[in-house]
Amino acid sequence: MQTTQHVLFERSEMKDRHLVRKKIREHVADKTKLPILIFPEGTCINNTSVMMFKKGSFEVGGTIHPVAIKYDPRFGDAFWNSTKYSMMTYVFKVMTSWAIVCNVWYLPPMVKEEEEDAVHFANRVKTVIAAQGGMSVLPWDGGLKRKKVKESFKEEQQKKYCQIV
To answer: Which domain of life does this protein belong to (predicted)?
Structure first.
């Protein structure tokens, strides 16, 4: 990984976040370096939606080259539900599937607009990717599939529902 200039960090460690942001800014500023591949969702889900993007990737400046990726599950499902299947079961399912078919769309480059903050820029990029892949846009973090939903989030959704009714 050192030869390919990976930037490793612990997401929960605030010092690491600042260091990564600095390293990415330096990388983006150096035009002799190759582009950085970032998966801003921070996780993969079941191929139906695009979840909230982490804003850090969109704070550093530079041009974003969005890529929409959607798996075709007709011959084999590439999605791993780690709460349902062990790693060995998942590997067995992938290795015994007919094929893993994936559609990849390279979308036009996008740049942060002057009045836009990182969150709005991330949401704009996410919307373009979701539209291309025919997926829905979700406003929440991918961590919800691994954590219990906060009570405050549930209450907020209940209030919204009550206002509708």
So the answer is: Eukaryota
Find out whether 41 and 142 touch, Cβ atoms under 8 Å: yes
User: What is the pTM (predicted TM-score) of this model?
Assistant: 0.75
Instruction: Please tell me the distance from the alpha carbon of residue 41 to that of residue 32, in angstroms, as a whole number.
Output: 27
Split at pLDDT 50, 70, 90, the class of 120 is very high
Tally of CB atoms within 10 A around 29:
11
Residue 150 tokens, joined: 């906060």
* Separation of alpha carbons 123 and 64, rounded Å: 13
132, pLDDT greater than 90: yes
Q: What is the mean pLDDT of residues 80-87?
A: 82
What does the DSSP assignment read for 122-135?
HHHHHHHHHHHHT-
